[in-house]
Specification:
Structural class: alpha/beta
Mean pLDDT: 89
Number of helices: 12
Number of strands: 5
Low-confidence stretches: 258-267
Shape: globular
Order of helices and strands: EHEHHEHEHHHHEHHHH
Largest sheet: 5 strands, parallel
Distance between the termini: 45 Å
Length: 267
Amino acid sequence: MRQIGPNFFIVGAAKAATTSLSSLLETHPQAAIVRFKEPHFFSYDYRYAEGWRLYLTLFSHVSDEKAVGDASTSYSRIRYHPQVIERIKRHVPDAKIIYMVRHPIERMESAYVEHMCTGDEMPFTSINDIIRRQPMIIDSSRYWEVFDAYRRAFGEERIKIVWFEEYIADRKTIFQKVCRFLEIDDQFEPNLDRERVNSREDAAMRMARLGRGGIPLDLVWSENLRRETIAQIRDDNLRFLAHFGRPANYWGDLFENGVHGKSSGRR
């Protein structure tokens, strides 16, 4: 019996609504998402060593769906998983890639909150603490670097960029565009009420369950560290924005004066 595998990947970026989009796609009769979102098969060596056949068992629920996806944000952390693109290309040479991007500083802030709400990491004292100790947080906002690496492997026509801000403003329209990219029925009405999202409102409750109820969420940046962080991603992000016809101020005045660029406050 032939085992069915993925033909598209939602590769990241983390905290840019990848869970939300994959949840909507799960409701589409012509689409299916891997069991246990974020299997990280192609990025983590120990997972990849388990073998392709075992990975395919995560798609045993798939029957005749046309678009079959794996949503793992680690696939965009190419500095830490340098073999991930080569591995995807080896097994799924004609894969389609969905890459979701977000205001880079807000994405980092949301990633900090998520770290504090999970048991995967030791708690951090502030946004400044996680930025200093986890350079991966910054690297996940190097959007051009990731896009260009996937473009070289798969071709730009097989990559769909989804802008978080546009998705949040009009999920239905962006969902339809994603459906057209995946060549599935774009007239399907997604059940937006069913959508699963990583809510920030319950952060305190989630932290309390982990015994972190007394630890405050400190999102106040050191001006110097914020300036240094923006300087690290400035050229990359500006190149990415320009390539897709977005103005340099698409994310506000972030790259005009690196310290006081306004944030929407969305977490």
